[in-house]
Structure formats: C-alpha cells, structure tokens
Amino acid sequence: MSGPSIRSEPAAVKWAIIAAATAIVALLVILPLINVFAQAFSKGWDAYTAALADPDALAAIELTLLVTALSVAANTTMGLVMAWAITKFSFPGKSFLITLIDLPFSVSPVVAGLVFVLLFGAQGYFGPWLIDHGWKIIFAWPGITLATIFVTFPFVARELIPLMQEQGTTEEEAAVTLGAGGWTVFRKVTLPNIKWALLYGVLLCNARAMGEFGAVSVVSGHVRGETNTIPLQVEILYNEYQFQASFAVASLLAFLAIVTLLAKTVLEARLGGHKR
C-alpha cells in the first residue's frame, strides 16, 4: 500500500501555491521586463533608435559582442577539455579539479576583478613587465575578456560533465577497437552525444557574458567609447539621469534574456528527450 502523495493535497492548497508562485514570477520577472521596454519606448521610436545609435552606445555594443565571442569560444574549448579529462580519465586530484571548476560560482565577481588588477595592473605583479613591452591588459579589452572568461568559466563544463559521466566510455572504447583515432572518436561519437548539452552550456555562458557587470566594472576603467560594455553604459546613462536612453540600451539585454529563455526551453526539451 503506497503512502500519501503530495498530489493528494486539497485543491484549495494546490491552487493557492500555484497562485503564489505565479504572483512571485510576475512581480519579480515579468513586470520588470515590461517596465524596461515601456521606459525604453517612452519617448517614441525615434528617441529609442537615437539612443542606440549614439557613438558611445555603439562602442559598448561592439565591445560587448567582441568580449562575449572571445569568452564563449574560450570557455567552450576549455569546457570540452575539462569535461573530457574528468569523465574519460582517472588521475590524482580529479576531485580537486572539479572543485576548481566551481570556484567562480563562489567568488564575488568584484573580487575576481580585483585579482586581475593585482596581477596585471600598473602596480601588479606582471604590470610593469607588460607596460615595458607595450601590452595593456587592465583598462582595456583584454582585461575585460579575462574577467568575463573567469566569471563564465563553469557553465559549459558543468553542463557536460554529468552527461558524459552518465554516458560512460563504452561507445568511445568500441570506436577505438574498430580503429578510430582520437579526433574521429570525438567528432563521430562523443560530440553527437553531447551536442544539446554543449549548446545549452554555450547559451548560458553567452547570456552571462553579455550581462556581466561586477568583474568588468573593476577592470574596465569606465572609459567612454572604449572600455564600457552594455551594462556599464546603462549604469553611466542612468547616473546621468538619461533614463530613457539607459532603458533603451538596457532593452538589448532584456531582449537577450527573452531570447535566452526561449532557446533554453527548446534546448531543455531536446536534452530531456536525448536523455530519455
């Protein structure tokens, strides 16, 4: 005889919980998104496009796209390498390596930015040597990229590791037995099995990279038209009481959030079907 089920709760309790959850989502997620777009278009389409066409806004968009592309490419490569090493090989320190992958989740982005300043800033450990050789890291796009890579590092690896552990190494071993080389095994066997999880991790990494504020704020220097990403440009416009312009630029990130949500839903369905 089976025990009581949570689904046997009275209808009033069930609908009260559903209503409370819906109200919370509406209050904390849906209404803020609606408000962003309402404020962005509060002065009409012309004012909206003018805010996005501002040279500083265009520079922020261009820098954000560059940093995001570099960060996603780097973390996709490193995530695949980390996941492959952890799931396909046994070696001392594997648990410690998994812990290090999760480190960016537990370190404040502001602290991460300060670490890069201490390493590559003018008064940092490597700063004087970099300056002597004409390389500028901090207060330039390389420092912003490094900080963003650090903050978004776990997303791809953390999506791949559980799936690859569940799949095991049987198919790869069979391919090797049949004479396939390492690259062929990865391309023909491993990659098709992990493609949806990989895309899901890339999607999360991309969204996080475009919206990163804390670490980027520390290493950027807030130089208009040069080192401001979209979130930093939004902050500057808002602090200058250019509210409509700040919401116009912020609407790009809000639009990204909506697109990410839709893509996330599709990929979750694909990934769930693949696991089944």
Protein described:
It is a single chain. This protein has 276 residues and is an all-alpha fold. It contains 14 helices and no strands. The protein has helices spanning 11-40, 45-53, 55-88, 94-101, 103-106, 109-120, 127-132, 141-152, 154-167, 170-177, 182-211, 214-220, 230-239, 243-275.
Number of strands: 0
Query: Which of globular, elongated, flat, extended, rod-shaped describes the shape?
Result: globular
Terminus-to-terminus distance: 29 Å
SSE series = HHHHHHHHHHHHHH
> What is the residue-mean pLDDT, rounded to a whole number?
87
Sheet-strand content, in percent, reads under 5%
Which value, in Å, is the CA radius of gyration? 23 Å
Question: Percent range for helical residues?
Answer: over 70%
Show unreliable segments: none
Enumerate how many helices there are, as a single number: 14
Question: Strand pairing plus helix content: what structural class?
Answer: mainly alpha
- Major sheet details: none
